[in-house]
Each structure stands twice: as structure tokens, then as C-alpha cells.
Design goal:
The complex is a heterodimer of chains A (395) and B (250).
Chain A (H helix, E strand, L loop, with lengths): L5 E2 L6 H28 L14 H16 L1 H7 L10 H21 L7 H6 L6 H24 L7 H24 L12 H27 L6 H31 L4 H10 L2 H23 L7 H28 L8 E6 L13 H24 L3 E2 L5
Antiparallel strand pairs in A: 1-3
Helix pairs in contact in A: 1-13, 2-4, 2-7, 2-8, 2-12, 2-13, 3-4, 3-7, 4-6, 4-13, 6-7, 7-8, 8-9, 8-12, 9-11, 9-12, 10-11, 11-12
Chain B lengths: L1 H5 L3 H35 L8 E6 L9 H10 L15 E7 L5 E6 L8 H5 L5 E3 L5 E3 L9 H5 L6 E2 L18 E2 L5 H5 L6 H8 L5 E5 L6 H8 L15 E4 L2
Parallel strand pairs in B: 1-9
Antiparallel strand pairs in B: 1-8, 2-3, 4-5, 6-7
Classes of the chains: A mainly alpha (395), B alpha+beta (250).
Chain lengths: 395, 250
């Protein structure tokens, strides 16, 4: 096997690169402006309320954070599980993971009621709170993946690569378990009080992270005019198929369990049958676009070597994943909490017993999209400055 | 000359290192000291572990169409609506229920249930949600970062997020945009020795007497005696939170 050389990524002409960065900069600026508008006026200008307390920014943030830990998988397979085909992709895997996490965290922090008090969150910890754990898990992730990248790039510390790789792998599992547990430990809400949330988020991260990885890898090698072999891409594609199937399995287990428990019939009926937009997002978004289409594109012999099909499958996984998080986060809140079992609420001064509507506003969406732009900017700059991508990935 | 350049100026390094360490200490120390001070403040300020303050609400006495307790709470704490019910703060709310099987109707008021094991305190990342030693659950508005996790965790929907800037606040309850708040069990009155909440006072004035406030730890208090001699319930008792607010005739 010939030696692997890594080189900074140049995307055609400098004008093309800089105009791309400028476009991302504009998207980020719009998102920051939107955040300022929401903070300055207060959250009443958003679609959020006292019933739907987490809105579209949380969907973007959780989606990006979950994808971030999944993006690191390729590096883990390369250095922890010894997959030689994956090893050259490890550096990019680490860079993408850091970028996605940074984007997600920016959205999360800027949607706080008091983002100016971030220092309080960094210095004041309640160790019974999953959020407090997540502050440590997220900041630790940057540090560990940073060191992991260092051991991959610097030959003098390469001997620690496997050890750091192990640490990073366990850390990323803990991180997604923590993110899933935010929902798993909410005892009062019927959509959330399930421990399966934590492993389900882990497997969701595998799927979304790999989809992000594949689609950006293909794009980078087209823009950089470099060779990307079919064999390696097919390996990634098959792995994505397994992950998509696993997410589907977890979704099935979660919903079947709820269907068995009489107490949870209400929420199941809401999500699966008569929840309006949430039911549509579940069936069309999560199941059809997010599971059936990608599985068909991945396993159909007609698209065996089609790069177009692999890219389309990855995009479908991401769209479906976004809807899945939307249904979990917003759908779970829209369905009313059952404070009085056996009773029907005739009237209430605070929307008891009512399905709440939530219509996301433009500033919320702008902030969320800016999170994706931050991730892509970090990747674009990182790949240009550091030797991240192999010169060629031909088979 | 070459000899000299081989020897780095260690004094200079030490000074830079010292400066970095000092800056770090200056950044962290105030937080640590404030933290230590505020924790002891919370435990001691006005609260006495001998008491556990709570309420008993008699559903049979809660009159249809009456909003005296809600109005009194709003006035007491300076809660003003902005004509946007979905985002306006609500500390106490009337709820009318109908039994699905028997059709029997009930009316009651819901507010923070001041749990012994409050889920909001469990999930709060910064310890802003806390329970005083006398059982009153509060939010430290200086420490709340507005993450709304407590609102997700509260089984009673007792909390409100402040969605806009506030003006003309009441001295009884300092509040702030971007923070979460809920019923304080009129802690300002309790700390002043006034053993009656604003909602109870208003309810009594109307002649309904549906709300009874008192010390659950004192066996001779009216609330303790009533609780002992009647069949009261906790809302969502299955969660084992041991609420400080109990209900009669539900």
C-alpha cells in the first residue's frame, strides 16, 4: 500500500473559496442578528411560549450536537477498531465533529433566556442535573477531540493515538447518552419518561453523524478535484444502511412499548394518528424520507455504485433526522401533560389538557441555520489550514 | 553572547506564568467566594428548618367563576399581562375538571406544589432552582440562565418564563426578563412573620375559605389538624414528590 499524504484543501480558485466563506459569514451574521433581536425583545417574539418552552433553536442545536458525536465515529473505527480503510478519514472525522458541536452549542447558548450568564453555567454545577453534566461533556469533547486530532497529525505523539482514540470513543458515547437523558429523565411527560431515549440518541448520532460525514466528504473531494474511490465510499454507504436500520429498530421498540402501556396511548395516538403536523412529520419526514428512501437508495442493486444515490441517501437521512428530533422535542411538549388522570379539563387558566400549537418564527430558523453555517465554516477553514484530507482516496 | 541566548530568561517566564495564574485566580475566585456565600445565605435567610410551609385547597369551596386568588397574586407580585396569554406569567390558575366516568365536576387552583423532592431543583444546572429549609421552592433570579429545563421537568406546569422586559415591578417579588419564576408561597410575607398568603387572604375575603396556608410540621396548626382528620390528596401522588400543597374533595 502506498504511503498516505495529507494536504490542505484548495477548492478551485481563491475567489470561489473566499466567496463561499463570505456566504457562510453572511448566514452567520443574519443568525447573530436574529439572536440579538430575540434577546433584546424577549422570547415573546418567537413561537415559543410557557407551554412549548423549547422551540426550533433547540431542534437545530440537539440535531447538530447529536450529529457531532456521530461524526467522530469514522475516526473511532479507524484507530480504536482498527479499520484500515477508515484510518485516512480520521482527521476529517475529528474536524467535522468539532465543527458540528460548536455550531450546535452556539445555537443552544444564544437561545438561553440569559446567554450573558454563560459564566454562571461554567462555574456553578448541580451534579444531579443532566444539563450540568452536559456542560462538562461538551467542553471536554472539544478538548479530547482536539488532542485526538493532534495525535493523528503530529508524528511525535502518534503513539498515543490509540489510547486517546479510546478515550474519545467513550467520551462521545457518554455525550450522546447525556443528550438523550435530557429527555429520558423527565418523569412527568409521557413522551419522555423512557430510558430507551439515551441509547436511541446514541444510535441516532451514529446515523446523522455519518450522513453529515459522507455528504461533506463527497463535496470536499469534488471541490478539491481529488480522487475518492468507490470501494471506500461503498463501505461508508453500507455502514450508513446499518445505522439507519438501527434507528428504525429503536423507533419501533420505543413506540411499541408505549402502545402496550395504556397510560401512554394518548401520546401514541397523537404522534401516530391525529397529531396533525407532528403525525405528518413522523410518517412522511422521519419514516418515509428518513428511513425508507435511504434504505432503498443504499440497498437497491440499481444504485450500487451511484454516487448520486449515496449523496441523496445521506441528505434524506439528515432531513428525516431533523424531523425526528422535531417530533421528539416539539411534539412531546405539544401533547398536554396529564395532571389529573381519569378527569377531563373543562376550563383552565393555563392551557391544561389542550394541545398547544407552535409556529416557528423566522428569527428562530435564522439562528438555527447559522449553527450549520458555523459548523461548515470551521470545517472549511480547518481543512484549508491543516492537513486534514488525504491527497487521494483512490482504492 | 551565544551562551547567554542558550539560557532562557527564567525570571521573565516566571513573571508571565505568575501573571497568568493571578489573572486566573482573579477570574475564578469571586465566583467561588460568591458561591460559598450564597449557599449559606439560602439556607439561613429567614428560613427555619423547624417549619414546612404548605397549603390545603378545598375543591368543594373553590367557587365557579371566581378569580379573587389569581387577581390578588397578580397584584401582590406585580404580574401584569401583556395581552398575550401564551407567554404571560401565571403563578396560580383555576382549573375545572370533570370526571370521565361519573361526570362529577370539580374546581381547584393549581400553583407550584412546593415538593419535598422537586424535579425542577434536580434538573437545574446552576442551582438557581432551590428549596429552602422550610420547604419553599424558589428561583434565584441572579443565577437562572433561562434554560427552561425546570419548566420541562415540572409535573404541574407551575412555572413561567419571562418573555419580555418588565417595568413597575412590585418590591415583593423582583423579577427579570429571561428568567423562570413561579409561586413563592408569598415568601416575603412568611419572612415578615405574616402567616397568610395573598391568595388565601383574598379567598377568605370573598367568603369562600378554600385556601388554607400553614405549617405542616406543627401538629397544632390548623392545616395539620385538618389534614389529619380528612382525606386529602396530592396531585400526581404516583411521582412520590411529597408535595407541600394538598387537595380536599378532589
Amino acid at each position: 500500500m502506498s504511503k498516505m499524504y495529507y494536504r490542505e484543501l484548495y477548492c478551485g480558485t481563491p475567489a470561489r473559496y473566499w466567496s463561499g466563506l463570505a456566504l457562510l459569514g453572511v448566514i452567520i451574521a443574519i443568525g447573530l442578528g436574529a439572536a440579538y433581536y430575540m434577546e433584546h425583545n424577549g422570547h415573546w417574539v418567537t413561537g415559543m411560549s410557557n407551554q412549548i418552552v423549547w422551540g426550533l433553536p433547540h431542534v437545530f442545536a440537539i440535531f447538530l450536537i447529536v450529529a457531532a458525536s456521530g461524526a467522530l465515529n469514522v475516526a473511532s473505527i479507524g484507530s480504536v477498531f482498527g479499520g484500515p480503510l477508515y484510518k485516512p478519514l480520521g482527521r476529517y472525522s475529528g474536524l467535522l465533529a468539532i465543527g458540528l458541536l460548536a455550531g450546535g452549542l452556539m445555537v443552544l447558548v444564544l437561545d438561553l433566556g440569559r446567554p450573558d450568564r454563560l459564566i454562571v453555567a461554567m462555574t456553578e454545577y448541580n451534579f444531579k442535573s443532566i444539563f450540568a453534566w452536559n456542560v462538562i461533556l461538551y467542553t471536554g469533547f472539544f478538548a479530547i477531540v482536539g488532542i485526538y486530532l493532534w495525535t493523528m497529525i503530529d508524528r511525535s505523539v502518534n503513539k498515543y493515538n490509540r489510547t486517546v482514540g479510546f478515550a474519545a470513543f467513550f467520551w462521545r458515547i457518554a455525550l450522546t447518552t447525556g443528550t438523550g437523558s435530557i429527555f429520558g429523565f423527565l418523569v412527568a411527560r409521557e413522551a419522555y419518561d423512557a430510558a430507551i431515549m439515551a441509547p436511541m440518541f446514541v444510535i441516532m448520532s451514529f446515523s446523522y453523524g455519518l450522513a453529515f460525514f459522507i455528504i461533506t466528504l463527497i463535496a470536499a473531494y469534488i471541490w478539491g478535484d481529488r480522487e475518492l474511490g468507490d470501494f471506500r465510499l461503498t463501505k461508508l454507504k453500507n455502514l450508513l444502511g446499518v445505522f439507519v436500520g438501527a434507528v428504525f429498530y429503536f423507533t419501533l421498540a420505543y413506540n411499541l412499548t408505549n402502545l402496550y402501556i395504556t397510560q401512554h396511548h394518548g401520546i401514541e395516538r397523537f404522534i401516530l394518528l391525529d397529531g396533525g403536523v407532528y403525525t405528518q412529520m413522523f410518517w412522511i419526514g422521519q419514516i418515509f424520507i428518513g428511513s425508507i428512501i435511504p434504505l432503498f437508495l443504499i440497498y437497491s442493486p440499481a444504485f450500487e455504485k451511484s454516487r448520486w444515490a449515496i449523496a441523496a441517501a445521506s441528505i434524506a437521512v439528515l432531513i428525516g433526522g431533523f424531523f425526528q428530533i422535531y417530533v421528539i422535542v416539539i411534539g412531546g411538549q405539544a401533547y398536554p401533560m396529564n395532571l389529573f388522570p381519569g378527569k377531563e379539563v373543562v376550563e383552565s387558566g393555563f392551557y391544561d389538557g389542550q394541545v398547544m400549537s407552535y409556529v416557528p418564527t423566522l428569527p428562530e430558523a435564522a439562528l438555527g441555520v447559522a449553527g450549520i453555517a458555523v459548523a461548515l465554516t470551521m470545517v472549511a477553514v480547518g481543512a484549508r489550514v491543516f492537513k486534514v484530507f488525504p491527497e487521494t482516496l483512490e482504492d | 553572547m551565544s551562551n547567554k541566548s542558550d539560557q532562557p530568561n527564567m525570571d521573565r517566564r516566571k513573571m508571565i506564568g505568575g501573571a497568568i495564574a493571578a489573572t486566573g485566580a482573579m477570574t475564578i475566585a469571586p465566583g467561588v467566594i460568591l458561591h460559598a456565600a450564597s449557599v449559606s445565605d439560602e439556607a439561613s435567610a429567614g428560613a427555619d428548618a423547624k417549619h414546612r410551609w404548605g397549603m390545603l385547597i378545598d375543591s368543594n369551596k373553590c367557587a365557579d367563576g371566581c378569580s379573587a386568588c389569581v387577581d390578588a397574586c397578580n397584584t401582590e407580585h406585580g404580574l401584569k399581562g401583556h395581552g398575550r396569554p401564551a407567554t404571560d406569567a401565571v403563578w396560580i390558575r383555576p382549573v375545572k375538571l370533570k370526571d370521565k366516568q361519573t361526570g362529577r365536576e370539580n374546581r381547584l387552583v393549581m400553583m407550584c406544589q412546593h415538593c419535598e423532592h422537586p424535579p425542577c431543583v434536580d434538573v437545574c444546572p446552576t442551582n438557581a432552582s432551590f428549596k429552602r429549609v422550610d420547604g419553599i421552592v424558589l428561583v434565584d433570579r441572579h443565577r437562572c440562565i433561562g434554560c427552561r429545563y425546570c419548566m420541562m421537568a415540572c409535573p404541574y406546569k407551575a412555572r413561567s418564563f419571562i418573555h419580555e422586559a418588565l417595568t413597575e415591578q412590585s418590591v415583593n417579588a423582583p423579577r427579570g426578563k429571561g428568567c423562570v419564576e413561579s409561586c413563592t408561597l408569598c415568601v416575603h410575607r412568611v419572612d415578615d412573620g405574616v402567616m397568610q398568603t395573598a391568595c388565601q387572604e383574598a379567598c377568605s375575603k370573598e367568603g369562600h375559605d378554600a385556601i388554607l396556608f400553614g405549617d405542616l410540621n406543627d401538629p397544632n396548626s390548623e392545616i395539620s389538624k385538618t389534614l389529619k382528620s380528612t382525606n386529602s390528596v396530592q396531585i400526581r401522588a404516583d411521582l412520590e414528590l411529597n408535595t407541600g400543597v394538598r387537595y380536599l374533595n378532589l
